[in-house]
Design goal:
Layout: E1 9-10, E2 20-22, E3 28-30, E4 58-60, E5 66-67, E6 73-77, E7 83-88, E8 95-100, E9 107-114, E10 127-135, E11 139-150, E12 153-167, E13 172-178, E14 189-194, E15 205-215, H1 227-235, E16 238-242, E17 249-256, E18 261-267, E19 277-280, E20 296-304, E21 307-313, E22 321-326, E23 334-338
Antiparallel strand pairs: 1-2, 2-3, 4-7, 5-6, 6-9, 7-8, 8-15, 9-14, 10-13, 10-15, 11-12, 11-14, 16-23, 17-18, 17-22, 18-21, 19-23, 20-21
Length: about 350
């Protein structure tokens, strides 16, 4: 028989006001500051609700081990999934990630790597994972949790636990609890979700959202961080600056130190995890510099207060300023920075 405490208030014997007041709707009002064993920011997964898609909202036959929606990458065997896309989510979620099977595929895995700094307290602990999943036809969905054998280096991993969920066409929250995480969990964690029990995914779809990994043995309601907070978490790993198909959008101002070379400082919204790699839209005449007819780029000069120096090679005027910009073009032009694990 389960014991139930029926009360409207809980109060410390020496307190002058109630510590907790309970109302008939099931709400709890705290008289002071609530404290937890760790934090009320529970979810170690970033972009678990699939809200952010800086790289794009649809990917046709994505490359093996390539990122799609922010923080989520896919790997596959045989053939790439036909598409990975951000789609309308089930009740309670604006978005979900949907993968579509393809002929000749023999396996496809949706994965997220969790940084070691977000796992430093997990050695010996119990964690619970959850995901809201639906499929176009009933099937077994595989999940696994592992850790890298070196800190934040996923060249090789060691399995911690794995299991399966029986998914149907109805969006359902599935959970799994893993006890006694090994000390290696402080190196980081890798969460994997795979349709068709990790086997051939040749047709149909799997739709996933509401992914959470938290400390403890109870799957608590999905944590919804503020939109700006979640975006900043994503941008620690990837930032894209683009022109939104508009001409004359400026990314940075630079200075030429010769007739062929210069550098431009790009201000990023957050400090990235590490010195990132630099990418850009394949330039055409005038894409990135008002006066340049061609543009080449090299690496960075470092990171000081989110200020990255992009070195470029182009016809320039020594000692003069130039603009790193999407010039007179009405196509989608971007520069990006990746510090993914």
């Amino acid at each position: 028989m389960t014991a139930i405490l029926n009360t409207t208030q809980i109060q410390n014997a020496t307190s002058t006001t109630p510590n907790i007041t309970l109302d008939t709707a099931g709400n709890a009002q705290f008289g002071g500051m609530p404290y937890g064993g760790s934090s009320f920011l529970r979810n170690r997964i970033i972009n678990g609700a699939m809200d952010f898609a800086q790289r794009g909202t649809s990917f046709s036959s994505p490359a093996n081990v390539s990122y799609t929606l922010d923080r989520w990458f896919v790997s596959w065997n045989g053939a790439a999934p036909a598409t990975v896309a951000q789609v309308t989510g089930p009740t309670g979620y604006r978005y979900a990630l949907q993968m579509t099977g393809a002929t000749n595929n023999t396996a496809v895995y949706l994965q997220q790597r969790i940084e070691s700094y977000n796992c430093s307290d997990l050695s010996g602990q119990t964690v619970t994972i959850q995901a809201n999943i639906s499929v176009s036809s009933a099937q077994t969905v595989y999940w696994s949790l592992s850790y890298p054998t070196a800190q934040d280096n996923y060249a090789s991993t060691t399995s911690i636990a794995s299991g399966t969920w029986s998914a149907t066409t109805t969006a359902t929250v599935f959970t799994a609890t893993i006890t006694g995480l090994p000390s290696g969990a402080t190196n980081g964690l890798l969460l994997v979700i795979a349709p068709q029990n990790g086997g051939a995914f040749t047709s149909g779809t799997i739709t996933i959202t509401g992914v959470q990994l938290e400390l403890g043995s109870v799957a608590t309601p999905f944590e919804r961080r503020q939109y700006g907070h979640e975006l900043a978490l994503c941008q620690r790993y990837y930032v894209r600056l683009h022109n939104n198909n508009l001409p004359y959008v400026q990314f940075a101002v630079g200075r030429a130190y010769s007739t062929t070379n210069g550098s431009a400082n790009v201000i990023l919204p957050v400090s990235m995890r590490t010195t990132p790699t630099f990418g850009y839209t394949t330039p055409v005449s005038g894409n990135f510099d008002y006066g340049a007819t061609a543009l080449g780029t090299s690496a960075f000069a470092g990171n000081i207060n989110n200020n990255y120096s992009v070195n470029i090679t182009a016809p320039l005027t020594s000692g003069q300023a130039f603009v790193l910009a999407a010039a007179n073009v009405s196509t989608y032009v971007y520069i990006d920075f990746s510090a993914e694990l």
